[in-house]
Design goal:
mainly alpha, globular
């Protein structure tokens, strides 16, 4: 599948954005410790790096990647690539500067003092850049020439990946309350809009809908498990880490299956 690199790039990227956003808010309101926030941010950066590495395989000639910069502000895809780089750079710095030893080296050798306030601002900028990157993805796929994509459902479901997949991963890594809430709200919206979305697709691309059944069931199964785990954590105040990590991995798998479906619905009317 030619679009498979984009599947990983968008899903892992949006998941990372959701994780950092929830960790940042949870840290501000005192729901998680600095160590927990650093751990969530670190995993988010790793996921994003993996997504970018796989996404780069989509380019036939990687050495021409810089040509994408020429379309900045005009091309949604150029905006997406630039924002992904800015977000990754800022997120990486956020994680790196969480290490006290690196701060000491910067202070002793370069006379640069990284205060907790400065680090907090850097983390906040990374979160904002992440949200901008997630928004840019929705702009790439709002195409009037592709009937199955030309709908508000496209943007909605892309944002739901940030909430559900990012929320489940943040939940597994310590941001229990906010992560659980993100999963519950996201899953509720996804289930509530499922009938309308399927009716829309059946009207626009009926010849492609039935071929995606396996992928949709995989996504719905993963989301149901994530919802059950989130409700359990929120209501029972209990968490079994192996189950939460398994649920997070399953949710990412479900999102990948759903995104494969999304790209399989690409079809241009003649």
């Amino acid at each position: 599948m030619h679009e498979l690199p984009l599947v990983f790039f968008t899903v892992l990227g949006q998941t990372a954005v959701g994780m950092m956003l929830l960790a940042f808010i949870a840290g501000l309101v005192g729901q998680i410790t600095h160590v927990q926030r650093h751990k969530i941010n670190l995993v988010a950066v790793i996921l994003f790096a993996v997504g970018m590495a796989i996404g780069g395989l989509h380019m036939g000639q990687p050495q021409r990647a810089f040509n994408l910069l020429f379309g900045l502000f005009r091309s949604p895809m150029s905006n997406e690539i630039v924002l992904s780089g800015l977000y990754f750079g800022c997120a990486f710095l956020t994680v790196a500067l969480s290490a006290p030893r690196l701060r000491d080296i910067l202070k002793t050798k370069f006379n640069i003092t990284v205060t907790d306030t400065l680090h907090q601002w850097l983390n906040g900028i990374a979160v904002l850049l992440g949200l901008a990157f997630a928004w840019s993805i929705t702009q790439v796929y709002q195409l009037a020439t592709v009937p199955a994509w030309n709908s508000h459902y496209t943007s909605l479901h892309l944002w739901l990946t940030v909430a559900i997949s990012g929320g489940m991963c943040a939940l597994a890594l310590g941001a229990k309350r906010l992560g659980a809430l993100a999963v519950i709200v996201g899953a509720a919206i996804s289930f509530a809009t499922r009938t309308g979305y399927m009716a829309f697709l059946t009207e626009q691309v009926p010849h492609l809908v039935n071929a995606q059944t396996m992928f949709w069931y995989t996504y719905l199964f993963a989301m149901t498990i994530a919802l059950v785990l989130a409700l359990w954590v929120l209501l029972k105040k209990q968490a079994v880490k192996p189950l939460l990590f398994s649920g997070a991995a399953l949710m990412i798998l479900g999102e990948l299956a759903s995104r494969i479906t999304f790209y399989n619905l690409w079809w241009i009317t003649m």
